[in-house]
Amino acid sequence: MMLTPLDPRWENIEMKEKAKNETIYLTQAEVADKFSVTPSTILNWRRRGLLEFFQAPGSTRVLYPIGAVEKFEQEYIKKEKGGPKQPVVTRKRSEISAKPNKEWRI
């Protein structure tokens, strides 16, 4: 069975082909939502060189390639599941009581 351009499945194939050749970008707000931080935090990470970004000349809009965002997540964001567990810290009470043993008269 041959697909024709009128077949609805044709659009899915075309979209998959385009997705292979094109890079997907996220906005600063989308990246901030992904990591549950403010957009200014994303700006700080960008200035420190932790996140790759794209900015067209003369534009104020900054876009982040999805691959760079995923790489950043793997390198810098800690995952709770499957990671080493922290040792339990037990604290001892001090041996000095709050109430002195002797009363001193002056």
Summarize the structure.
The protein is built from 4 helices and 2 strands.
Notes on the protein architecture:
- This protein is mainly alpha-helical.
- It has a domain at 19-76: Multidrug-efflux Transporter Regulator, Chain: A, Domain 2 (Orthogonal Bundle).
- Helices cover 40% and strands 6% of the residues.
- The protein contains four helices and two strands, in the order αβααβα.
- The termini are far apart.
- 5% of the residues are buried.
- The mean pLDDT is 76.
Helix and strand run: HEHHEH
CATH fold group of the domain at 19-76: Multidrug-efflux Transporter Regulator, Chain: A, Domain 2
According to DSSP, the number of beta strands is 2
Which CATH top level class of the domain at 19-76 fits? Mainly Alpha
CATH architecture of the domain at 19-76: Orthogonal Bundle
Radius of gyration, in Å, reads: 28 Å
